[in-house]
Write a structure and sequence with these properties.
GO terms for molecular function: RNA binding. The chain is an alpha+beta fold. It is 39% helix and 28% strand.
């Protein structure tokens, strides 16, 4: 990361100039005040400018995107990663050829890329973001499939009275299952286990029939 040092009559002015030179906002800057300003005595003697050191704060999205692009390059896949964000949620959409290779059987390769990218982002201090890696609109197709699966299993649980444990899923996939069954009477859902093997259990809910 590039660190710059600027001086000005005030700390605020020095920080502003430093951020402009780095092309970042003040919210994206880590500022260290090296010297506080002092006014000249009687307007003639002494005095000193403010001096600040400014460094861009680590950005989890930028770090994770660069990591994913490196992985794709090493896999020999020519692709572009498009990023969209909403609050603390970020979607990395992989656009290009050979998307089938990136998705893999039942999305296993894509899920592995998602897990690794999320781990990299998690290690960036002071900037948590939940990342979803997608390719070829797989996540939307997967969501539709999960909604259908959730309904089928819910019907089974209602008929048998026995809980059913689903396969391990990503956080967004578990959220889809919970949402799909939130208003279905006679069943309830619960996440269990530890990531990356966390899963959903669909249980009978006698009190809500």
């Amino acid at each position: 990361m590039t660190e710059v040092t600027f001086s000005a009559s005030t700390v605020e002015a020095a920080v502003k100039e430093a951020c402009l030179s780095l092309g970042i906002t003040e919210n994206e800057a880590k500022v260290t005040i090296l010297q506080e300003p002092k006014k000249k005595f009687l307007g003639l003697f002494g005095g000193q400018p403010a001096i600040v050191s400014v460094l861009p704060k680590p950005n989890a999205i930028k770090v994770a995107k660069a990591y994913l692009e490196t992985i794709l390059e090493k896999m020999g896949v020519a692709a572009t990663v498009l990023v969209t964000t909403k609050g603390r949620e970020a979607t990395f959409e992989i656009v290009g050829d050979q998307l089938g290779v990136l998705i893999g059987k039942r999305g296993q390769t894509l899920n592995a890329l998602n897990l690794l990218t999320q781990l990299v982002a998690t290690h960036v201090p002071e900037h948590f973001v939940n990342i979803t890696v997608d390719a070829g609109d797989y996540r939307n197709k997967r969501a539709s499939s999960l909604q259908e699966l959730a309904q089928r299993v819910a019907d089974q649980v209602q008929q048998t009275g026995h809980s059913v444990k689903l396969e391990a899923m990503l956080p967004g996939e578990r959220k889809t299952v919970h949402a799909a069954l939130a208003k279905i009477k006679g069943v309830k859902t619960q996440s269990a286990g530890e990531d990356p093997n966390r899963y959903v259990i669909i249980k009978p809910n006698i009190s809500n029939k």
